[in-house]
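User: Run a structure prediction on this.
Assistant: Running it now.
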Amino acid sequence: MGKLDGKVAIVSGSGRGIGREIALKLAFDGAAVVVNDLDTEPAKETVAAIEAAGGRAVACVGSVTEKGFAERFVQTAAENFGGLDIIVNNAGYTWDSVIQKMTDEQWDAILDVHLKAPFRILRVAQPLISAAVKRARAAGEPVPCRKVVNISSIAGLGGNAGQANYAAAKAGVTGLTRTLAKEWGRYNVTVNTVAFGLIRTRLTDAPAGGGTIDVQGKEIKVGVSPDLLDAMERSIPLGRAGTPADAAGSVYLLCIPESDYVSGQTLVCGGGFVI
């Protein structure tokens, strides 16, 4: 039996990279998962991988910043699997610039995806969770421990040159987490943050200035120079960047029963790197 048997999870940005690994890890341990991605094919591929391993999953394609997405995301879990036990707010990307060159569009886009979108998803999830808790208590049944894991970054803890928008958004995630931990404790919900350090994904491995990703029709430059990546890795006590599987493991720790009395915390997944 898996530790997450009978649980229902939604994981934003789970068609690729870290999010995909999170979805797979939760599903392989028994959770039914709603997979989300901007694009249909990556979402379908993650769902197919889960189903091929005997798990349960459905896709909810779309941008977490779209009006009405949060309602659709949460409703997909309720309609397909009958409830909601685990929320992982993972979707995001970077759009870097020094502050004097950063546009309002850059600022708003990154705050929207990293902070407003999790806020909206959690806001929509509250009535569903509250109603389930009330039903359980009225029936004299135990209230299961539900989990929220919001994804942050060491940039949100210590700042990072060229990332005023991203660092501000991720710092905001910490405040959101601590507040919800206090508001939702009465529902037996733990709310925590995982702050990633250097994790190798398509956002870091593209050559600096030479790689782009498409975000709703916008070509966003991504990538870090190999020399800078090497220097960053040398500053990590474990001597390497993390993998998406490493990152997913840290999220998993906050989703299993062993962490049922851990809430309002920020877990740094950074290989021992200290800001």
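The longest helix spans residues 104-138.
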